[in-house]
Amino acid sequence: MDSYAPEELLACVIAGLLAGARHAAVGASSPIPASGCFLRKNLDPAFRISLQQRRESNPFTEGSRELFDLAGQGRIDVFFLGGAQIDGGGAINLVRAEGKRFPGSFGSAYMYGVVPRTILFREEHSRRTLVPQVEFASARGTPAALLTGKALFLWQKETRRFRLESFHPGSTLEEIRDLTGFAFDAAARVPQTAGPEAAQLAILRGVVRSTITDIYPDFGRRVWPAASPRTDEA
Amino acid sequence: MLALPPDYSLVAMEVVRALIRRKARNLRLLGVPILGLSADLLIGAGCVAEVETSAVSLGEAGLAPRFTDAVEKNSLLVRDATCPAIHCALQAAEKGVPFMPLAGISGSDLVKEREDWKAQGDVVLVPAIRPDIALFHARWADEAGNVWVGRRRELATAAHASRLNFVSFEEKKPGDMLDDEILAPGVISSIYVSGLAHAPRGAWPLGMPGLYGADDMHVSQYAKAARTHEGFLKYLDEWILTPRKSSSPA
């Protein structure tokens, strides 16, 4: 297996979660979800991506309310949300915790309620971020999955609990139990998250890298510095 | 109440700097629907008493440091909202109706916290917001007093909803843009425009799409400097209060 950046693994997991989706919207400052979406689009050209904050070639002509109007009509089927805190009931907090102030709820309160497939994403996996109960619920809803820098959880609608689907290479089930503040279910044997395939890495380091670096220059240069292997060498 | 656009939507930064130099005080800001650098500067400079917004963020440059500090020190009142609620509230004002219904948000604690939002089953009734002033930057103003903001239609909604609108602009166009079928859809009519000011590169360090991009390096330098009150004051002194250095380096 080729070596890869942790962000590349996460983008591949996200691309897998997008199977069957027609239209994903990506909100503010979300370079990894955006990378996963562009990877998906390479496999499925009909897949549509609307990047809310794209400076050039922004998909909307009715201002920033158009995203919410589209979502309200059911024209967006995937959205990504994060949170300073995420709890075991799927609620997210973007406002305040432990005396600290965060930017605010953005459109989360609405998007979580109207978009059918919400993917919760937070790189930091700790008891600080994954809590039994959020201090303030910016938004509540029914997530599809929760992806962190260490593990993938899927949501179980019947019990309204997360189930650990896999942990990423370098982590262990014990570590996930140790670093997760909420109770979750797990199978008797939890597998490791599959690493990126060579073909996926080639797409990420080619077309996805150039698209993402235009939109998120700092992120693009950090994950794919000029010296990293390009498509033709992968 | 002063309505301001997010960093990606034509901010009248030169006017924001002028407000700081004039020591504006007790402003109530409205984010349409979020706020960024302009609000952080105004908050740090002591111009702001209250904000209503869905978020304050510097985007890729991270948290808005002066906003964060002011809230954590209890020196700034925040009325937290969510983006579509602010859009609805401005749309209610532009239609002249008292409120607008919004579905989807009833699970949020925002609904509990906002006593002015009325939950009716799964729908929340959001009261109209009629800002005193909206302030933004335009690509062009013409001889008829119209301004062109292109696709940034949230500015049109804010302009329709606000009592007064002050607009800075990049370039003056001869004639009347409403006579031009190609330009007209991106125009905000002079009906709404209360005052105009010529400010070339007036959105700097934010961008004017199609003309110049955001100066991301400058914004991230600001984000670093403004982590401390002292660093922020130094930034103000260097880039805003000293007239010679206050305009865009380009």
Short description, anyone?
The complex is a heterodimer of chains A (234) and B (250). Chain A is α/β, with parallel strands linked by helices. Chain A contains 7 helices and 13 strands.
Question: Could you outline the blueprint of secondary structure elements for this entry?
Answer:
The complex is a heterodimer of chains A (234) and B (250).
Chain A (H helix, E strand, L loop, with lengths): L5 H12 L5 E4 L4 H13 L4 E4 L13 H8 L5 E4 L3 E3 L4 E2 L2 E2 L2 E2 L6 H7 L2 E6 L7 E2 L11 E6 L2 E6 L4 E7 L5 H7 L5 E2 L11 H18 L1 H7 L11
Parallel strand pairs in A: 1-2, 1-3, 3-8, 4-9, 8-10, 12-13
Antiparallel strand pairs in A: 4-5, 6-7, 10-11, 11-12
Helix pairs in contact in A: 1-2, 2-6, 6-7
Chain B lengths: L1 E3 L8 H9 L5 E5 L5 H8 L3 E6 L11 H8 L4 E4 L2 H13 L3 E5 L5 H5 L4 E3 L2 E5 L5 E10 L4 E2 L4 H9 L2 E10 L13 E2 L6 E4 L17 H10 L3 H13 L9
Parallel strand pairs in B: 1-2, 1-8, 2-3, 3-4, 8-10, 10-12
Antiparallel strand pairs in B: 5-7, 6-7, 8-9, 9-11
Helix pairs in contact in B: 2-3, 4-6
Describe this structure in words.
The complex is a heterodimer of chains A (234) and B (250). By secondary structure, chain A is α/β, with parallel strands linked by helices. Chain A has one domain: Glutaconate Coenzyme A-transferase, CATH 3.40.1080.10. Chain A has 7 helices and 13 strands. In chain A, strand 10 and strand 11 form a beta hairpin. The model of chain B has no long low-confidence stretch (mean pLDDT 96). In chain B, strands 1, 2, 3, 4, 8, 9, 10, 11 and 12 form a 9-stranded mixed sheet that branches. A 3-stranded antiparallel sheet of chain B has the order 5-7-6, covered by helices on one side. In chain B, helix 2 packs across helix 3 and helix 4 crosses helix 6. The radius of gyration of chain B is 18 Å and the shape is globular. Chain B is built from 8 helices and 12 strands. Chains A and B meet through helix 3, strand 7, helix 4 and helix 7 of A and helix 3, helix 4, helix 5 and helix 6 of B.
